[in-house]
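User: Let's play a game. I give you a shape written as tokens, and you guess the letters that built it. Ready? Here's round one.
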């Protein structure tokens, strides 16, 4: 069936292209149709032709040269340097013989692309190689380097995987799309291990697959993959909304368990997801609590990940099209719009989202082509979850920091490495730059530095104001001299014994990482301050401290010791990457088009129910609050 579809597609393409275009072959590679031609410059110079063809076929189209017309690599490198302006600052040029791509890394990739793509088209015209243009991170990123090497070194394997996937996607539906349902496998009436199974008569797609890092036992840590309707062999796709572990931490286990299919997410999510998964494995091994997967399964996940841009419509199965939209939560976070069947039903899965502009990101998208069902989070959905504005939160934080530094203390901020850390870095750099707080060292510990490097490599996901500041004003807050990377234990000892300073350290809930070690050293000095800026889940050390516990037993020098908390404890809510109650209600109000049904998840039980009942009362919408293991029919 797929071969018939491919043959029909090839005939359509050949009939629509000018006669002088020599088509060597046409292949399905995952969701894309790849056209190999002996004169690609003719097609690339006529962008409208391909855009219209893709629109008519309702498929993504990639143009590549046939191997017979490729210029030798050495001469290609010379040509690239001739064509591309020196200001682009090319850092590396390599080749992928399998995909016939020349991979160009540059500090200013926009200059490699050129205005309206003129420079990249010239590269195709003079060399035959299709340019794959990558940004050189201003801060060197070990993770991005590893990912790029993994993808490059597995090119043959990846192409075979994509070809097999393409055959599967384009086979066509066997059954009529007259129903769709959602099985709650984690993250319903709880925060952590988010996981849902979307089923249609033709497809099974997993929406997120996370872990609960604060759980005390395995049965509460991982999603319910043992539900009867879930079979790893029948799974068509995994869609990841964003990189936090409670949404992606269990994906490597799927590959350990036998999954061979794709993971769909944004490029930034792939990078950050890899960072957090590897760190999760490393911490578990150090704590002698190994996970049921290892680094080779993370590597397999990288090889099987298909990255999508916001707004890019993609077939992920025979009857489901996926489009990702900005969620405003962390870098690359996405709301997942699923177009089921030929428009028979449309589902939006919000993941975690922030419906407010921040210094780091634009607010979450509210407009979709269609949306009959919306599955939304409720982390701060309780009627009492009223947070201050971002501006008020910034002022409160600076006031707290000012007081602490004045009395000779140190400020410890346990922070999530991804999102909150970068938001705070921007704020602290801004206030110090304008002399509004004392210039003291800001120590960056744990994964924060690597996560920040990834942010610098993916500026297209940042807010417009921040992009303008980086590209037009030439001031990148992330590379400020105020920030000092912490690299070893001796340096940490000097920090806690030294002069007043600000410390940003992982983990954000004090469930592990270096923030716990800083806490032990600083908590018994009343001059110091601990500031919480993110969600503290039940069972975490952070939650106990937040509740006011003054005697905290912790392991110290291989013995349990009780630490007496004398430092000031402060919680500032306005920096959260989640929407508060008012924003959640306002988000539903502004959804366009208006959905028929809202399914509420990702929140404590009373907050989930409170938000759902308020939505029902205020907007007269049908709402549901399933428990884990429940199945909800959405069509």
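Assistant: Ready! My guess for every position:
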């Amino acid at each position: 069936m797929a071969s018939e579809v491919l043959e029909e597609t090839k005939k359509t393409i050949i009939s629509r292209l000018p006669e002088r275009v020599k088509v060597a072959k046409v292949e399905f590679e995952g969701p894309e149709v790849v056209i190999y031609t002996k004169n690609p410059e003719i097609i690339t110079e006529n962008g409208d032709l391909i855009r219209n063809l893709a629109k008519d076929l309702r498929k993504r189209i990639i143009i590549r040269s046939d191997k017979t017309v490729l210029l030798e690599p050495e001469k290609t490198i010379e040509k690239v340097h001739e064509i591309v302006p020196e200001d682009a600052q090319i850092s590396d040029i390599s080749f992928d013989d399998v995909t016939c791509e020349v991979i160009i890394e540059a500090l200013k990739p926009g200059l490699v692309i050129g205005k309206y793509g003129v420079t990249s088209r010239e590269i195709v015209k003079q060399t035959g190689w299709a340019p794959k243009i990558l940004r050189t991170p201003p801060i060197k990123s070990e993770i991005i380097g590893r990912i790029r090497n993994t993808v490059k070194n597995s090119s043959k394997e990846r192409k075979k995987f994509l070809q097999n996937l393409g055959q599967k996607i384009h086979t066509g539906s066997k059954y009529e799309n007259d129903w769709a349902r959602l099985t709650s496998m984690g993250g319903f009436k709880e925060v952590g291990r988010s996981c849902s199974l979307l089923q249609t008569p033709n497809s099974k797609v997993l929406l997120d697959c996370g872990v609960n890092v604060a759980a005390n036992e395995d049965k509460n840590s991982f999603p319910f993959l043992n539900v009867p309707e879930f079979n790893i062999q029948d799974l068509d796709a995994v869609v990841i909304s964003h990189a936090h572990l409670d949404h992606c931490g269990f994906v490597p286990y799927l590959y350990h368990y036998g999954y061979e299919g794709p993971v769909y997410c944004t490029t930034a999510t792939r990078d950050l997801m890899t960072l957090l998964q590897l760190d999760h494995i490393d911490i578990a091994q150090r704590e002698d609590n190994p996970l049921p997967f290892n680094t080779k399964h993370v590597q397999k996940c990288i090889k099987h990940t298909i990255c999508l841009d916001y707004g890019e419509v993609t077939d992920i199965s025979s009857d489901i099209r996926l489009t990702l939209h900005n969620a405003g939560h962390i870098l690359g976070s996405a709301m997942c719009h699923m177009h089921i069947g030929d428009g028979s039903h449309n589902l939006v899965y919000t993941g975690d989202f922030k419906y407010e502009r921040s210094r780091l990101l634009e607010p979450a998208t509210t407009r979709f082509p269609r949306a009959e069902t919306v599955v939304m989070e409720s982390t701060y959905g309780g009627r009492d979850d009223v947070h201050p504005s971002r501006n008020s939160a910034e002022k409160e934080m600076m006031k707290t920091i000012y007081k602490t530094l004045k009395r000779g203390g140190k400020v410890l901020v346990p922070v999530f490495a991804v999102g909150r850390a970068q938001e705070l870095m921007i704020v602290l750099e801004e206030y110090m730059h304008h002399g509004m707080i004392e210039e003291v060292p800001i120590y960056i510990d744990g994964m924060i530095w690597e996560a920040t490097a990834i942010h610098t490599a993916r500026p297209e996901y940042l807010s417009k104001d921040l992009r303008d500041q980086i590209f037009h004003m030439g001031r990148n807050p992330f590379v400020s001299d105020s920030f000092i990377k912490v690299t070893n234990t001796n340096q940490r000892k000097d920090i806690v014994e030294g002069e007043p300073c600000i410390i940003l350290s992982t983990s954000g809930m004090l469930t592990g990482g270096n923030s716990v070690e800083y806490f032990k050293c600083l908590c018994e000095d009343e001059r110091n301050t601990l500031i919480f800026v993110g969600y503290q889940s039940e069972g975490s050390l952070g939650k106990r401290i937040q509740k006011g516990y003054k005697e905290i037993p912790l392991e110290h020098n291989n013995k349990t010791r009780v630490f007496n908390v004398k430092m000031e404890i402060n919680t500032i809510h306005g920096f959260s990457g989640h929407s508060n109650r008012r924003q959640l209600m306002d988000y539903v109000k502004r959804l366009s088009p208006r959905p028929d049904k809202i399914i509420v998840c990702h929140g404590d039980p009373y907050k989930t129910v409170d938000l759902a009942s308020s939505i029902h009362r205020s907007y007269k919408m049908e709402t549901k609050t399933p428990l884990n293991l429940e199945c909800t029919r959405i069509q």
